[in-house]
Amino acid sequence: MSDPRNYTIGWISALTTESVAAQQFLNEQHDNPEYVGQHDNNVYVLGKVGRHNVVMANLPEGEYGTASAAIVAKDMLRSFPNVRIGLMVGIGGGAPSMAHDVRLGDIVVSTRYRDRGGVFQYDFGKTIQDQTFHYTQHLNQPPQLLLAAVSGLKARYEADGHQLDAQVTRILKKKSRLRIKYSRPPTISDRLYRSDIVHQGSLKNCSEICGDGPEHLVHRPERGEEDDNPAIHYGLIASANQLMEDAHIRDKLTAEKGVRCFEMEAAGLMNHFPCLVIRGICDYADSHKNDKWQGYAAMVAAAYAKELLFQIPPNKWLVERKMDGIKRTASATKAAIDHFTSDRHTNKIKGWLRPPDPSTNINHARKLRHEETGAWLLADPFFQSWRSGSHQCLWLYGLAGCGKTVLSATVLDHLAKTNNRLLRFYFDFSDVEKQTLDGMLRSLAFQMYQHGVASTAHLDALFQDHNDGREQPSTNALLGMVCKILTEEDKLCIVLDALDESTTTRELLQWVEDIASRAELRHVQLLCTSRPESDFKRDLPELIGQGNCFSLDKNAMNADIRAYVTWQLANRREFQVKNLSEDLLGLIQRKVGDGADGMFRPLMVSEAVEVIATDIGAESHHFDKESRVFDGTEVLRHCPGLMSIVEARDRYNTVRIELHLAHFSVKEYLETQTDFKQQSASIIITHTYLTYLMDITGSHNKIKQDFPMARLAAETWINHGASAESTEDVFRAILVFLNEEKTFKRWGRLYQADQSWSNNPGPPTRSRLYYACLARLAKVAEELITRGADVNAQGGFYGNALQAASSEGDGEIVKLLLDEGADINAQGGFYGNALQAASSAGHGEIVKLLLDKAADVNAQGGRYGNALHAASYKGNGEIVMLLLDKGADVNAQGGTYGNAFFAASENGYEELATLLLRYVTDLTITDDQGQTLLSQAAHQGFATAARLLISTDAVEIDPRDHDGRTPLLLAAENGHQRLVTMLLNTNRADVAAQDSCGLTALQLAALRCHTPIEKFLMESGSPISSDFYGLQMLYS
């Protein structure tokens, strides 16, 4: 066995391909280490390169990113205390530019560039208002010893060239089994596509999907005999926790930061592991991934690393000196990793939950708030009584525009001073994410999660129960989870603003009733604001008590308004320059303040006309490029009461200047006007956007820059076309638009409804009928069929027109397609078939229509495996009953959760799951691994399903699968502590049971490092012994 203290070089790889390549360059291989640090999960390969002892480690299979790399480095430093030099060697995506001709098979070495030390973490930073994204992660540069070796090797190569390709060839001659995967591919397969050419997700190769003609590729001269091939590039390597697949972002970072290569691990190492990063280029960090070059790229990177180590002379001091500094680094690494891992997990939860952020509304309200606004409310005995805890709920109501949102901000700031735990949510008519109970629950849940309270375990459990964030939780699941967290919390206050701007009023009122009626939630105080609309005036007094409903004082609100107007008259330049008389100023204050009736009234159109006529010059403006004369401030100046200019940022941190309605009241007014009725508005919008799209010209590369409305027009007209096609002129305009080849292709390149996430979906490849059905254009679809469109044409996200129409819930089009001969059971697309699509989307009438037309109720395939699974997953009880009545197989396997019962139970639909369980006639039925429903639930961590199964008398607690593992063993092995607890609490599960390898639940938990489960099992009386490998438990 090898002594870990003898190893001074640490070599880390991310992929198995990289590890295999690295091991080929060891001059000799050593035995395994005599010992490693406690809880060190790395598997090490030890050997010698030149005169250096090298320890190699690989990231766990399937794990990538900065955090995983950092954990591997931390464990290596703990187990091999004299590691002095680190190498991160493997593959990466090249960043070619005019200045640096990076090609496949080349090598990039991390060296200092400008103010950065070799590695640049481009997904770590902050957004500052009015500025671009600031990168705040400062990473250390590689050790000077390694940089000196890089410099020496660079000079040698410049004088004499290198033999890296020859070294790879020599090794592959000896290892014939590696030749296919690790040899250099033909140069013809090295294709650099233009940045605007995007590979559209197909498994087919690029030459078929993207073309390989010169018009699609970047021309590069062939390398001559005098050129190094592979070439070696020195400079900045960009690292992040996600794969770079966007050529435009690649080019932007290459131009702005001087990046040569993109990868996913190095940023996790640089500050805690003295490290040089060496990457062989296997693709171009774009959508055209090229697995063919991975093996060769890994080999040449490893060959360079070996050459580099030969440049470093062994140093006795280097070997023998105790590495106190490295130990301190290891300690710092652990702290940093704990913090980093925590932050990373929080970000993962946030990305999964997508909670709406109420701070934008609060900050806007604070900006609008005049000093002392709302002080009268804070001093009111009614509020004071609620504040003291005498009342649980408080409803503040007043008419639109009276300042309720500003008052909410005042209350929040007041409550924050008293160190209360505060949760807040602002419903907002202008933000669809802030209009539903679902959005509110997501926001409240994440706010509690950020506080770091112990009850956040419930949110982590929900994340795990939803396939580690790969699936979204239902509103019911969120309701249950938030209720559990609130129950376990100490006293807290929830402030909800503008309930009337929610689109889910009934569900929201039901939630308020739950808060007010449940004894275990008495410690949760609730303050709500809204307009006194009929639903709220009828229900809220009954739900929370009439004595807890408070009409906002008009006189007090008028005083607030007078104070605001007085300040405006005294301080705004527009009024100062007019030199208004004292009498007129007083009149304005009285009329606006006392006449406000407790409201900030939006400007009337007649008044706005007068203002615009006064402030705008006589010159007329026209709708064309030359008439683009107004900037944002001028628009605001002409209609200050109706609109506001808002600066926002998209997910790429690009600044967007947006025009918003100034207030909900403005929207209400506009909705009373004829042109803003749904039908009229849709006709105007559709006609406008179709005309725009037919008139704009230019190359696809520049069209969005030259015509900023191009994408919006392409995306929006189909949302209104179904309402507008009833008019003959719009109907004809749509047909002309679709039939005109240039226009159709231009539209498809800008936007495709079944690829709405893509900014560059490529030319349209589906039929015009498919797109018409997706847009619910029934009249257009009928005309296209009359003109000969194929109703069974395959292709697209939904596979065919029938599946698209079924998913959209358009019964008229579904019936039309079936009458015209569409194959009702056609397979393909995301949902596999039309029935599954309709069942998933909750379109009961479509499901009934399809079943009546003899759709196969048990057809397999698609996202959910079958229609019953899809309906159960979405909690559509009526559709589930329709399917069961038509003979749906409740035991059918497939889909995300394996079967319909699991799909319902794990998404919060317990009543539906209980119903489905009654249809399961045999609870001992097993899958192809020999697992019963309970075993499957234990294996997957489906806690609700397991609880329902255990509650039945017929279920067996300790059935064994083909590996001899009981549900308890499966739960312990896979880290599902709630299930372990649940099974042991039955007093029927055998804690000493062993699988076919002789392993108990305790031993399986120990092998997988599930420490909390180990402790719990020991406390529950699990026997402690050595397994047949001689593995001792971690606890005695």
UniProtKB/TrEMBL annotation:
Residues 373-531 form the Nephrocystin 3-like N-terminal domain. It holds the Pfam family NPHP3_N. Keywords: ANK repeat, Repeat. PROSITE patterns: ANK_REP_REGION, ANK_REPEAT. It comes from the Eukaryota. ANK repeats lie at residues 800-829, 833-862, 863-895, 963-996. InterPro entries: Ankyrin_rpt (IPR002110), Ankyrin_rpt-contain_sf (IPR036770), NLR-like (IPR053137), NPHP3-like_N (IPR056884), Nucleoside_phosphorylase_sf (IPR035994), P-loop_NTPase (IPR027417). One of its GO terms (molecular function) is catalytic activity. GO terms for biological process: nucleoside metabolic process. PANTHER family: AAA+ ATPASE DOMAIN-CONTAINING PROTEIN-RELATED, ATP/GTP-BINDING PROTEIN-RELATED. This is Nephrocystin 3-like N-terminal domain-containing protein. It comes from Stachybotrys chlorohalonatus (strain IBT 40285).
